[in-house]
Write a structure and sequence with these properties.
six-stranded antiparallel β-sheet; single chain; about 5% helix; 15 strands; 2 helices; mainly beta; five-stranded antiparallel β-sheet
Length: about 200
Amino acid sequence: LIFTSPKNGKYEVTLSDGSVKDVSISSIPSALVVKGPWNVYFEDERDVDTSLVLERLTSLTELSPTALQHYSGEVIYQTTITMNSEQLHEDLRWFIDLGEVGVIARLFVNGQSFAELWSRPLTTDITKALRVGDNEIKVEVATTWLNRLVGDLTFPEAFPDSIKPKAFNTQITFETRLTETTELQRSGLIGPVLLKPIKRVKL
């Protein structure tokens, strides 16, 4: 029988036979904030540079240039975290929490693929992929087309801070209520991204 806890402290565990067992949990390290910097990569022919570096995560709709605010497609985020042997003790499990994502994320840790994450909490156990030293975190995010559709309605020829005509225009072939004033959808990996430890104790 295994008891798990995310916090240090003293607990009373009631077993199936009605007996009560005292459990003391200690030495759980603090959660880690994955601060970055983050290397970010975009698809070709989307009217934006194909890469940039973010010192902190935020929605694409809060960045410049205007084309980036209206970006739709896949975005890849990469960064590195460092773990020590104490953090990777055998009785600890580590869960990553991606925070806010717009809209669907696929996670890789040191090249190992994890499940797609799209409903909160955006959390999964990544213990098996972690190692002492540097660990590469990669998050592939797929957005919806809403922001680009609004951008094409608002700026049919070129984005206002670009000297080039747009690489392409979306073609709406269905009835829609989208207009130039439709609010943009928060998109990309917004975070905060956390690594949360949970301790396992055998009863």
